[in-house]
Structures are given as C-alpha cells and as structure tokens.
Amino acid sequence: MAAAEYYSGACMECVPKELLTPQTLQRAQTEQLPRRKDDHGIAQGRIMWLPAAEDLPERAVRRAHGKGAVEDGIYNHPVVIVSRPAEDEQAVHFHLITSLQGKKLDQLYPKSNEFHTSRRSWYLPISPSPEHPDATSKKAKKRFPTLALADGASLRWDSYVNIRHVYKIDWTLLKPYSNLNTPRVATFRLERESTVRMVAKGKVLTLYEPSEQNSTPAPLDLDRFGLQQHQPQHTWAGFARLGRREHPFAHNDSSLHFADSHSNAHIADDQADSDVTHSDSSAHCV
C-alpha cells in the first residue's frame, strides 16, 4: 500500500507530491467519514464511496447482473446507485465511477476499430468532463449524453460512469462521497434527467433493468409533458420515454420507477451499441 494512503485528509499537505494520485486524494478525503446508519437519500442517482476491500467484509461486493469475478480495481472509488430494489431493503445496485487515471476517454481508447469503439461505449462522462468522443452529432449526443450532478455539485476529478458492469452491496457499507472543493454540498447525486439517461443507456448496453424500487416516487405532472397518467406497473419503459424530453423534475431522492406501455420509445437510437457481448465479464477499472 502506498505510504500516502496512511495520511488523513487533514494531513495531506504533508504527503510528497509524487504520491498524490487521484485515488489517494479521494480516499484521504473520504476515509474519516462514518458509514451511514439511516437510509435517507439512498436511492437511484445517489453518489457514494466504496471503501477499500480490506475495510469491507469478505465478498461484500457481488455482481448484480452478469457473471464473473469482482475485480480488485473497483474499490476505493465513487459509485452511483442505479437501483435500490424493493425486494431487498439492505441492497443497492451500483455502477463504478472512474477518473480513468486522469486520462480522457479518447486517450485511453483512441482507435476507431471495433474493440476501442465498444469500450468507449461503456462510459458516460460526468460534467464538467469532456463530452464523449463519439458524441459528434445531435443524434450521437443522445446516445452518449454527458451526465450532470444536482445542485451545482462537481466531483473532484473529471470522471466517467462505467455502465457496462452492475454490482451490489449492503448500502450501510458505503460511505458518503465528499469533495473539499465544494464544502457546501453534503449530498452528491445525479440530476433526475441524467439518471434517466444513464439507466436507459445501461439497459441497451447490458439488458439490465432495475426492478421495483424501495422508495416511493414523487407525484409527476405527466400532463405537462403530454403523457397519460398510469398506475404503476413496475417497468422502466415510461421512465425511458421521459428521458427524451426536457422536464424540470424536482431534485429529490425518490424512486425513478414509472410505467408506460411504449417500452423502447427513447432508446431505439441506441441499438447500435447492443453489439457488445453481454457475456464479457472483463472490466477496465482504473
């Protein structure tokens, strides 16, 4: 373990600069925060911190979708909750958030061949990170949206959500995410529309679809968007449809589980991404 990892956030000025990697800094800022005991705000779109493997019980992290081992590289990273299933009150499903070791996506996968194109499709940037390198047209920007945080928050580094892999963990083992550069922001989460787009993109790429959620959705004025009000049927289709439109949802932590009979209205343009082999369990966690 690098020597810098033994320093707390209060002593980071004592650490030699050559040891200050993004991962070291992020851990130092987060390691002293206690784990959560209440579940307020633990919902889709919430950003939390996954501690080091040695600070977690054995096999605390498992795959929520697909097969394969859980890679060592996922620990000590921020994560974004993609589901809090109603059938398991303690569990959350999440995607990894990565800084790509300070590289841009087109620096990590610069080629136009099938492999690099496929790997680039695994990631969605979080503002103010550079736009996705394949978002070169209006249509492509819908396929590769830049996600935004609520309340004007920002992460410590340019970061990307890896939507290719879905993991699960007991939410009480996660820690709150923090950023000393934005001390007034106590809760980090994606904007509602960004959560819509992230989930819709993940469904196309991996066929993963969140089930009924633990929390209760806030009432929506669907008439305002020309949508008919339905009784909940526990599908993600209507949520995907909402993702096509401009909608000033209130930034709350309620469930994003809505119903609509038009199951693939907004993700049809994304089908070009579905050539990724769903059985590929290898991850690029950096």
Order of helices and strands: HEEEEHHEHEEHH
Secondary-structure-based class equals alpha+beta
Spatial shape: globular
User: Span from first to last CA?
Assistant: 16 Å
Largest sheet: 7 strands, antiparallel
Count of runs of 4 or more consecutive helical residues: 6
Query: What's the count of strands?
Result: 7
Structure notes:
The protein is α+β, with helices and mostly antiparallel strands. It has one domain (22-275). It is 16% helix and 14% strand. It has helices at 22-30, 105-108, 114-120, 138-143, 192-206, 237-242, and strands at residues 47-50, 62-65, 77-83, 91-98, 123-126, 159-170, 175-176. Strands 1, 2, 3, 4, 5, 6 and 7 form a seven-stranded antiparallel sheet that branches. A hairpin with a 7-residue loop joins strand 3 and strand 4 (91-98).
Secondary structure blueprint with pairings:
Elements: H1 22-30, E1 47-50, E2 62-65, E3 77-83, E4 91-98, H2 105-108, H3 114-120, E5 123-126, H4 138-143, E6 159-170, E7 175-176, H5 192-206, H6 237-242
Antiparallel strand pairs: 1-3, 1-7, 2-6, 3-4, 4-6, 5-6
Task: Note the main attributes of this structure.
286 residues, alpha+beta, 7-stranded antiparallel beta sheet, 7 strands, 16% helix, disordered C terminus
Compact summary:
With 286 residues, the chain is an alpha+beta fold. The chain has 6 helices and 7 strands, in the order H-E-E-E-E-H-H-E-H-E-E-H-H.
